[in-house]
Structures are given as structure tokens and as C-alpha cells.
Specification:
Elements: H1 2-9, H2 23-33, E1 40-48, H3 70-73, H4 76-86, E2 89-97, E3 109-116, E4 121-127, E5 138-142, E6 145-149, E7 155-160, E8 170-173, H5 181-194, H6 202-221, E9 225-226
Parallel strand pairs: 1-4
Antiparallel strand pairs: 1-5, 2-3, 2-9, 3-4, 5-6, 6-7, 7-8
Helix pairs in contact: 4-6
């Protein structure tokens, strides 16, 4: 297990979660931390990306021996983003179907609803076959306002109690950089130089996968499932 190996050999590990470095999502995170929308009530994110002609080298994404689960393999970005913005969920219920890519080994589309320890609730939609453009649109509703953001637009929308009724949100400009690998690499280098854990360490990676695994289990059992939360050691 990666977590055990990192502890045993006293090394550092960084998981690649580029959404945490996308400018639009960073602005959203800062607005939340600054209290601009109050306490989070509801959060939703989506990951849809048509993989019909993106099977990977040697068709590895479609390989039944690998059995890549789209809800984790691509959807991990939306799942991780929700965790980063709203905290780790405690319970999830998920439905999945298999209509876009029936010759692929795993179900291609799913929707999950979740609840958080804070009392907030949320939703995530994932599809690797949907016939639409790539999207990671994310919405966060709080007691004092709302945020609408993604990683491909040049702005973030902020609704507050002053402007929500008028329907004229603050339009916050952001650079478009949906795969901001330069800042991601910079974080890795800075963490190594400082001798500290990267912000997306092995536990962040493990708990995002645990979130996805709980979604898959719920889709199989037809029941709400607890989401494992592995504490740092």
C-alpha cells in the first residue's frame, strides 16, 4: 500500500489532482475560505468527457482485464474537487447505467448524492460517454451566497445576498488553465525543498478513491454506503 510505503521509507508522495490548481477552482476555494458565501449548504460538480475515441494506448481504457471504472478513472477529479471544497463526505448513494459504451467493461454514467459531517449535501455526475463537450461545471450554494465555476471559463460567478435577487452576480475574471501543471509541479518542488507533505499527498489520494469506491459499492448494492476516511499517520 502506498501510504504504508511512504511511512516506512520516510518519503513524500504527491497525487496528481489538477483541479485543485485550476484558477477558477482556486478562486472558488478562496471565496469559501473568506466566508463570502457563508456556510456551505449544497455542492455539486460534474465530470463528463466522451471517451468513445479516447481508448488510450493499446485500448487500455477499454481492456476488460484492467476494467477501468470511469467513475474513478475520470470522475476522480470531480470527487476530489468536492472533497476539497466541502470536506470529506460521510455517506453516499449512487445510481449508474451503461448505455453510451455498452461494449466497454464498466458502466459509463453515474450520479451520486452525498452528505457531509457538517450537514451539507451534494451531488456529482460522471459520464465517459455523454454526447456533449468536456465539462467540470461546479456550483456551491452557501447560506450567504453561491458560486458557479469551472476550469474552462474566463470567469467565476459570485452571487451574494446583495445581488442574488437582482440576478446580476459578481463576475470575477480568471485565466483559463484547466490543466495547470506548472503550478502543480511548483507545489511538488516547494514541498520537497521545505521537507513537508505536498497538499495532495497520499492520504488525499486514498480518500478520494475511497469516495469513488463507496459510489461504486452503492451502485451495486442499491443502498447508501458509508465513505471511509483514512486518517493521516
Amino acid at each position: 500500500m502506498i501510504n504504508a510505503a511512504v511511512r516506512r521509507y520516510k518519503k513524500y508522495f504527491m497525487i496528481g489532482q489538477v483541479c485543485r490548481f485550476a484558477p477558477g477552482f482556486r478562486v472558488a476555494k478562496k471565496l469559501i475560505e473568506d466566508g463570502q458565501i457563508g456556510t456551505i449548504v449544497f455542492v455539486e460538480s460534474e465530470y463528463y468527457h466522451d471517451y468513445t475515441h479516447a481508448r488510450g494506448v493499446n485500448n487500455w481504457r477499454k481492456d476488460p482485464k484492467i476494467r477501468r471504472e470511469g467513475f474513478i478513472g475520470g470522475g476522480c477529479h470531480a470527487l476530489d474537487l468536492i472533497r476539497w471544497l466541502a470536506g470529506h463526505p460521510v455517506e453516499v448513494f449512487c445510481y449508474m447505467n451503461h448505455k453510451y459504451l455498452p461494449d466497454w467493461p464498466a458502466k459509463d454514467t453515474g450520479v451520486a448524492v452525498m452528505k457531509f459531517k457538517s450537514g451539507a449535501i451534494g451531488k456529482v455526475f460522471v459520464s465517459i460517454g455523454v454526447k456533449a463537450g468536456y465539462s467540470m461545471r461546479t456550483v456551491i450554494h452557501g447560506t450567504k451566497g453561491s458560486i458557479v465555476c469551472d476550469n474552462t471559463s474566463d470567469h467565476v460567478l459570485l452571487f451574494t445576498h446583495q445581488v442574488a435577487c437582482a440576478g446580476n452576480p459578481w463576475r470575477i475574471p480568471v485565466p483559463v488553465n484547466n490543466h495547470n501543471v506548472s503550478d502543480e509541479f511548483a507545489e511538488c518542488v516547494e514541498a520537497l525543498k521545505a521537507g513537508r507533505r505536498p497538499t495532495t499527498d497520499e492520504y488525499e489520494g486514498t480518500n478520494t478513491v475511497a469516495f469513488g469506491e463507496a459510489c461504486l459499492k452503492s451502485a451495486r448494492t442499491g443502498k447508501a454506503e458509508r465513505v471511509q476516511n483514512i486518517a493521516r499517520k
